[in-house]
Design brief:
The complex is a heterodimer of chains A (about 100) and B (about 500). By secondary structure, chain A is mainly alpha-helical. Chain A has a domain of about 40 residues. Chain A contains three helices and two strands, in the order αααββ. In chain A, strands 1-2 form a two-stranded antiparallel sheet. The longest helix of chain A is centred in the N-terminal third of the chain and has 18 residues. Chain A is flat. The two termini of chain A are about 45 Å apart. Chain B has about 500 residues and is α/β, with parallel strands linked by helices. Chain B is built from 16 helices and eleven strands. In chain B, α2 packs antiparallel against α3, α7 packs antiparallel against α16 and α10 packs across α12. The longest helix of chain B is centred in the last third of the chain and has 24 residues. The chains are: A mainly alpha (about 100), B alpha/beta (about 500).
């Protein structure tokens, strides 16, 4: 069984880009401990040399001819955007000034 | 045949429409009127599209009058779970992060509903991003169980199940990642099918866990489920995991309702201990009915099913943490600027938006998945869970060597009261203990009403599981059981639910 410290949960929330408030973080630490203890039991199953399964059915790669076909018009794609400008998504700054 | 159109099955409505004894507009209007009368307290819908549904119905009436050959279900209206995108109709998946979003395209299954001429009544309530077993995790307030408004309608598809159970729609679409079609069906006395993984296109489903998600029918009868299954099923080039095999002959199987010589496997790990006495009693009764109808019973053991819940709560959150990364405040949905930060960066806006836009359960699962996939823990958690998944698939394969279908109660309990499990996520997760194995292995499953529990008078569901791509067996067994139980009860189970319009209930909330 693994312990998740408050700092570790804060780090995970950072990785997941969720700005958790302190009270949320406190509650989450306790809840995750209970859930982790339950899910860690997968390690006790007889999984020694068992292959991993990522998908319910065998997957085959699917291809199609590389030809132009109709797609979503730009204005439709932008219609739900928080902000759009000049036919593009407008986003907050992605780089720092210095 | 009743005179109230909302009490008719979809199959009956289809016949009335074909014989031109009623118009699609009358049928649609009857359901919209019912929604106005009862959905204040039930809250099955997040959005009702009166105008769009009536226009689609009028179009069908005109085409029928013009002598056009129409689909058998043309003019039969339907409700769609809000996790399925609908062009021009708001789609939120029960989340604040998508409040007000109107998708620019239709999911493939919606395209098929429209092509069949089925008016879409509205979008149904659900746990946020389909995460939950009660609809209490909807950002827009819970749906209430039509049998008892103080109890949950199941989840995540509680809205679709409640819409059907309260006669607001004859048909609805659900999605099932760990039981979200079957468990709501069980606790509302309705029918729900999770088809074989890949049987119904996932294009346009807002993904929770891509290797587990599957859309399917929510109905009041087994035949109606089969009719809807045939409309939405079948190969789709827009979903690379879509099966190329034809849709199994589910309607024919439902009409035959034949179980003579069929081997019914009782899964030892999914009965008895942990199941409410009234749930277990109705299960045993249903098995006796099937034996009486000519089926043979065998007991099977699936030892790895005891690890299914743990494996599921690693596989699913891992996929969730990846799938929900797209809600980044950039291309659609909510954008929240962090308070007190001058010239915030995209990453700061992302983090503030995801904190404000996601509810507690969604955040829990994203963080759990982020942890399970993180370097140093991947093998111990996600890797181990994937191996357990193989063991579960092997257990199914071995069981289907000796049995044609497997059966169990759908859910360990009847509908619980609001708030009962909100402070204890793990106890909420336990609701899906019997439904999860099917999603992990990709096999099809159905829940059919099996009666009311003696201790609380609430509906109980009977689960049927079949091998991958043998969905028709669910319908054969489900229809045989339904026929016998309905005869024994002297009518459908839902006839015994309370009359919602006779109650003095709080003033209705405005329809959005």
């Amino acid at each position: 069984m693994s312990e998740l410290s408050r700092d570790a949960v804060a780090h995970l929330a950072g990785l997941a880009r969720i700005d958790l408030a302190d009270a949320e973080l406190d509650r989450m630490v306790g809840e995750l401990a209970v859930i982790l203890e339950a899910v860690a039991t997968v390690q006790q199953a007889p999984i020694g040399d068992v292959p991993a399964m990522s998908h319910p059915l065998p997957l085959v790669n699917v291809t199609r001819p590389d030809v132009v076909r109709p797609c979503l018009p730009a204005e439709d794609a932008l219609a739900g955007a928080p902000e759009a400008e000049e036919g593009r998504f407008s986003v907050p700054r992605i780089l720092s000034d210095d | 045949m009743t005179t109230d159109l909302t009490r008719s099955t979809a199959a009956e409505l289809a016949d009335l429409l074909t014989r031109r004894e009623v118009s699609a507009r009358e049928v649609t209007q009857a359901h919209l009127d019912r929604t106005r009368a009862v959905d204040g307290p039930v809250h099955a819908y997040l959005h009702v599209d009166e105008e769009g549904a009536l226009a689609a119905a009028a179009d069908i009436d005109a085409r029928r009058a013009g002598g056009e050959e129409l689909h058998a279900l043309a003019g039969v209206p339907i409700a769609v779970k809000d996790v399925v995108v609908t062009k021009g109709l708001p789609t939120t998946a029960g989340s604040r992060i998508l409040q007000g979003w109107v998708p620019p395209y239709d999911a493939t299954l919606v395209t098929r509903l429209r092509a069949a001429g089925m008016p879409i009544l509205g979008k149904t309530n659900m746990d946020e991003f389909a995460m939950g077993s009660s609809t209490e995790h909807s950002a827009y307030g819970p749906t209430r169980n039509p049998w008892d408004l103080g109890r949950i309608p199941g989840g995540s598809g509680g809205g679709s199940a409640a819409a059907i159970a309260s006669f607001q729609a004859p048909l609805a679409i659900g999605t099932d990642t760990g039981g979200s079609i079957r468990q709501p069906a069980a606790v509302t006395g309705t029918v729900g099918t999770k088809p074989t993984y890949g049987g119904v296109s996932r294009y346009g489903l807002i993904a929770m866990a891509s290797s587990l998600d599957q859309a399917g029918p929510c109905t009041r009868t087994v035949l109606d489920a089969a009719l809807l299954h045939e409309v939405i099923g079948g190969h789709d080039v827009m979903d690379s995991t879509s099966l190329t095999a034809p849709v199994p002959a589910v309607v024919a199987a439902a009409r035959r309702a034949e179980v003579t010589g069929l081997r019914i496997g009782i899964v030892r790990e999914l009965t008895g201990e942990g199941f409410q006495p009234g749930v277990q009693a109705r299960f045993e009764e249903a098995v006796a009915h099937l034996v009486d109808a000519g089926a043979e019973v065998v007991e099977v053991s699936c030892p790895s099913f005891t690890s299914a819940l743990a494996a599921y709560y690693l596989v699913m959150p891992s996929e969730v943490s990846s799938n929900l990364a797209k809600f980044d405040a950039m291309r659609y949905g909510l954008r929240v600027w962090p308070e007190g930060v001058a010239d915030a960066s995209a990453e700061q806006v992302m983090a503030a938006t995801r904190d404000a836009g996601f509810g507690d359960e969604v955040k829990r699962r994203i963080i759990l998945g982020t942890y399970a996939l993180s370097s140093g823990y991947y093998d111990a958690y996600y890797g181990s869970a994937q191996k357990v998944r193989t063991l579960i698939a092997r257990d199914f394969a071995a069981a289907f060597e000796v049995a044609d279908v497997l059966v169990s109660p759908t859910s360990p309990t009847t509908a619980f009261a609001f708030g009962e499990k909100m402070s204890d996520p793990l106890s909420m997760y336990m609701q899906d203990i019997a439904t999860i194995p099917a999603n992990l292995a990709g096999v099809p499953g159905m829940s059919v009403p099996s009666g009311l529990a003696d201790e609380d008078g609430l509906p109980v569901g009977f689960q049927i599981l079949a091998p991958a791509m043998a969905d028709e067996r669910l319908y054969a067994v489900g229809a045989a059981l339904e026929a016998r139980l309905t005869a024994a009860w002297g009518g459908p189970l839902l006839a015994r639910a309370q009359d919602l319009t006779a109650q003095s209930i709080a003033p209705t909330e405005a329809l959005s």
